[in-house]
Amino acid sequence: MAKIVILTGAGISAESGIRTFRASDGLWEEHRIEDVATPEGFEHDPDLVHRFYNARRAAAMAATPNPAHEALAELEADPGHDLLVVTQNVDDLHERAGSQNVLHMHGSLFGALCHACEHRWPAPEVMAPSDPCPSCGRAATRPDIVWFGEMPYRMEEIWHSLRAADLFVSIGTSGNVYPAAGFVADAMHAGVPTLELNLEPSAGSRMFDEARQGPASVLVPEWVRERLGG
Ligand code: OAD
């Protein structure tokens, strides 16, 4: 049974119509990271932050999985493969394509978190700063998204899986944000072979044993067909 750890980023959802962060028309061209993706930004203007993520949630709900998400679900269903999808994405397109073993290291648009008592619950479609926490009742609702300056979720589990993997594959991520950007080096040090599938060379492309360039909707199904021997 081949153990594969897959890291995905915004590029895998781009062809589903979800904007990436660092493209010339990306989200970070229109919004300052400090304003909408940091705890300080939230403290300063929670309304703005909620509006930003409400719009991201609406875009994710309107999108549908593309052949890249679907191919990963198909590979996971194969009895010869043990797949873990570690995603930096906060959309739910992997799950909607049928993937089951998905770890959202940067959180999810579909989760709410009380920053007063840390209670978590499913996010409503539209969130506002005045929403009371269902557990402690305080108006301290935030999206359950990992912001800059915060620790991504389940890191020990990810590093453990990475070290035990037979292959590490990075798909649709620019390699700018740590710790995810360091997974290729972690895999390399553990002697795990590495493959990158991305539209263009990423910041860390040269560290991968193999890097293929093209759209995820083509590269990922192609690679999955190779794995499944078809
Ligand atoms: P980026 O926007 O930084 O990078 C997206 C990558 O996907 C780029 O390298 C593109 O070339 C590539 N790409 C675009 N379209 C593609 C396609 N159709 N097929 C294949 N590749 C494609 O997004 P991420 O690397 O995911 O974090 O960004 C990482 C983190 O930075 C995000 O999780 C987010 C952001 O700030 C937080 O908000 C905490």
Automatic annotation (TrEMBL):
Keywords carried by this UniProt record: Cytoplasm, Metal-binding, NAD, Transferase, Zinc
Deacetylase sirtuin-type domain span: 1-230
GO molecular function: histone deacetylase activity, NAD-dependent; NAD+ binding; protein-malonyllysine demalonylase activity; protein-succinyllysine desuccinylase activity; zinc ion binding
Compartments where found: Cytoplasm
One Gene Ontology cellular component annotation held by this UniProt entry: cytoplasm
Binding site for substrate: 53, 56
Chief localisation class: cytoplasm
Cofactor binding note: Binds 1 zinc ion per subunit.
Catalytic activity, reaction form: N(6)-succinyl-L-lysyl-[protein] + NAD(+) + H2O = 2''-O-succinyl-ADP-D-ribose + nicotinamide + L-lysyl-[protein]; N(6)-acetyl-L-lysyl-[protein] + NAD(+) + H2O = 2''-O-acetyl-ADP-D-ribose + nicotinamide + L-lysyl-[protein]
Binding site for Zn(2+): 114, 117, 133, 136
Catalytic residues in the record: 106
EC number(s) recorded for this UniProt protein: 2.3.1.286
Family annotation (InterPro entries): DHS-like_NAD/FAD-binding_dom, NAD-dep_sirtuin_deacylases, Sirtuin, Sirtuin_cat_small_dom_sf, Sirtuin_class_III, Ssirtuin_cat_dom
SUPFAM superfamilies named in the record: DHS-like NAD/FAD-binding domain (SSF52467)
Cofactor(s) the protein needs: Zn(2+)
Residues reported in the UniProt entry to bind NAD(+): 9-28, 88-91, 172-174, 198-200, 216
Task performed by this protein: NAD-dependent lysine deacetylase and desuccinylase that specifically removes acetyl and succinyl groups on target proteins. Modulates the activities of several proteins which are inactive in their acylated form.
Entry's family note: Belongs to the sirtuin family. Class III subfamily.
Annotated PANTHER family: NAD-DEPENDENT PROTEIN DEACYLASE, NAD-DEPENDENT PROTEIN DEACYLASE SIRTUIN-5, MITOCHONDRIAL-RELATED
Domain notes: 2 residues (Tyr-53 and Arg-56) present in a large hydrophobic pocket are probably involved in substrate specificity. They are important for desuccinylation activity, but dispensable for deacetylation activity.
Protein's name in the database: NAD-dependent protein deacylase
Organism phylogeny: Bacteria, Pseudomonadati, Pseudomonadota, Alphaproteobacteria, Rhodobacterales
Recorded name of the encoding gene: cobB
